[in-house]
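worker-03 picked up job from queue 'complexes'. Input manifest follows; two sequence lines, order preserved.
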Amino acid sequence: QKEVEQNSGPLSVPEGAIASLNCTYSDRGSQSFFWYRQYSGKSPELIMFIYSNGDKEDGRFTAQLNKASQYVSLLIRDSQPSDSATYLCAVNNYGQNFVFGPGTRLSVLP
Amino acid sequence: DAGVTQSPTHLIKTRGQQVTLRCSPKSGHDTVSWYQQALGQGPQFIFQYYEEEERQRGNFPDRFSGHQFPNYSSELNVNALLLGDSALYLCASSQTLTGTNEKLFFGSGTQLSVL
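worker-03 finished. Artifact:
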């Protein structure tokens, strides 16, 4: 069974700090990796995706992928209270369905 | 450019009843996936439709069935509702591009409560 694991949190960081969210996956055939943000009572919103080993930066967000370790992370720099949400990690293999982790709840304290 | 639309937004049913949820994919997308998200959990894959056929199915009983129409819109049907079926049902659309990476975009979801 393909699994995606995340720390459920909550992860609390002060405003302006770096939030680090981690995810591991079991399927070595996974090809693409996604981070979704989900505010309470809302649907998931795609914020980052990464396909190759290394780092990918987009504004305050950086996704990091290490396929050998089957590990993907999301860094949020200069965290804001508006970043408080649940962050879902998802992995996908070509032609397969997306598998989601349970999500990590992030709380950014003013 | 319309995103993924779902209806209804909320639904209350009683045990044993049947329900139909509807989804229209994002413009340009041809694939629809349905997910169930229980409170405090990540989305769980129900099934995926492409070219009007069920392409993949997750670990859900046959009470869960679906359909995709020629315009790519889709329905999720759940028969003989159980209390445990109470959840947020998410429709996600993507474009199937052979050999490339798909991105999944979600609708706002249907909150189903079974009493």
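worker-03 released lock.
Chain B has a mean pLDDT of 93.
Residues 49 and 74 of chain B are 8 Å apart (CA to CA).
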